[in-house]
Amino acid sequence: MKKENSTPTMKDVAREAGVALGTVSKVVNGLPVGDAYKTRVESAIQKLNYQVNSYAQGLKTNKTRTVALLIPNTQEPFYASLVYHINLALLKRKYRMLLCSTDYDCGQEQEYIAMAQQNKVDGIIGLTYNPHLIIEESTPFVAIDRSMGPKIPCVTSDNFAGGQIAAEKLADLGCKNVAFLRTGSDLNNEPNKRKAGFENGCLSRGLAYEMKIISDGEPYEEFDKFLADHIQEGKLSFDGIFCVTDALAYRVLKILRRLNQKVPEDVQVIGFDGIRYFGNQDYICSTIVQPVSEIAEMCVELLLQENMPSKPPLVCLPVTYVYGGTTSEPFDAKE
Amino acid sequence: MKKENSTPTMKDVAREAGVALGTVSKVVNGLPVGDAYKTRVESAIQKLNYQVNSYAQGLKTNKTRTVALLIPNTQEPFYASLVYHINLALLKRKYRMLLCSTDYDCGQEQEYIAMAQQNKVDGIIGLTYNPHLIIEESTPFVAIDRSMGPKIPCVTSDNFAGGQIAAEKLADLGCKNVAFLRTGSDLNNEPNKRKAGFENGCLSRGLAYEMKIISDGEPYEEFDKFLADHIQEGKLSFDGIFCVTDALAYRVLKILRRLNQKVPEDVQVIGFDGIRYFGNQDYICSTIVQPVSEIAEMCVELLLQENMPSKPPLVCLPVTYVYGGTTSEPFDAKE
Question: Residue A125 forms beta bridges with which residues?
Fold first, then answer.
């Protein structure tokens, strides 16, 4: 199949429909026009297989129907899942998505922000821990997990509630002495509230707890040492551990195996994120599941909503606990 | 920080540099111009922080510096890794990437192909098993894993060699009686060559082998049944299994656990892809690793290469075997 004819233009559509060029332009750009005209133009568009030149359209309407997504990478499963759901949410609304996953390349990220300021993209959804990024409040931007300024909406899971649920679940399952393990960015961010929520849950249920928090760049071996230091006569002094992510829980499960501690018999482990093997198979561990598809929908809704005088600065979406083999649930609660 | 002044135009740059507008245009569009002029224009661009309007530029030069990527999803780890590396390869060359991951939504995919034909994107890289997709030979397109036509380059791993390496490795590690398990698309595609390569390796090493191949949509329980049927007096008749993907190997490892078969003592398992937990932690199993970053680079190179009278129809990139805990390597071969 080869293209035989030249691509039809807006003029061809006007001629075919027997209307003025301006009428075609109005229909194409979604501006009000009489129903009869609209039908004639739409039939002509279909008959000629006319396709809007979105670059010319971009120049005229200042809209590109394109949104950029900034995300550190697509290899970590939580990010991969976010990218997928945001892509679907945009395509559903006939928007295209530019992907910018650059592992904290500030120059690249800043370039996309400049594009938004110059109306080359309609807006940006960004999950970035880049501390050097400058975003003006007038830039259409929705942040995930980390607030980028008082006028920029931030969408996140209810991380505080997630931490609290983890503590309460460990208490419900009979734990008496628990630990919280965390690694991650020191920058102010929403996931850091998991710690406060967990402490709150421990206090309200009278659970004894200890914390081990390491900063970005510090070696994970600190966790090996911390857990080994809490073994007396072959027995770990904790009977429950809450890890700030499933990725950390996965490492901790390996450490516990090396220390000859049985999971969940000797110690129960809860992670955070809701990661499954290969994206759709078993959960890595018992975990607090983030509502990824709801986060994606909310980001897109907030970004594209134009007639909202003040957008909510922080939106926290509900999380749920799910059994994933590393806790001691009664039989009927499993799967 | 608020924008105080209006965005500088090409005219402002020309005035600042003391050159004609056409000279600025040449520099911006990468056309030849005297070195002294070039330096003056570049200094003016920097001083004014002038940014090229890529939509206006797109209309003039018919180039958008944008490439679309069609991929079923970003949740499966192999796809997630491809997206990441293609994104990096494009950003390195100052190209933007439109992501279209729609789980086989043919309408969406076809729309991106129309965009390429109308020069709204410079080209497409596509991994798609969509049998209804129509791609004209004149469309700038590079396919991954499945040939989309004789004039469209296809980039893939050396799947045949991968299958052969798996068979030879199992033979080297002492296996005598092996199985090949496959699921996936019935459409002609490159990964299907893993089977032929494996058979070839078995024949050359005198390995007895059986195959179990199920089609898309058939239940995975067929593999449970196949393996259970090959147990006699508690012992599996295979001492080696090659699975067409790591995702399948993961399922097979679970089945073997249920059948009380020890891996690697009773049966050794090799997968294909090179998937790691969380993208960068341990391998799921001993596996044939696909060179994802090289595949990404090759796709981008072939797509953007304009002065190539005939592009190679099929490029196969070398794979490597890596130990991942499900084979019986001598100690010093492990990591």
Answer: A69, A142
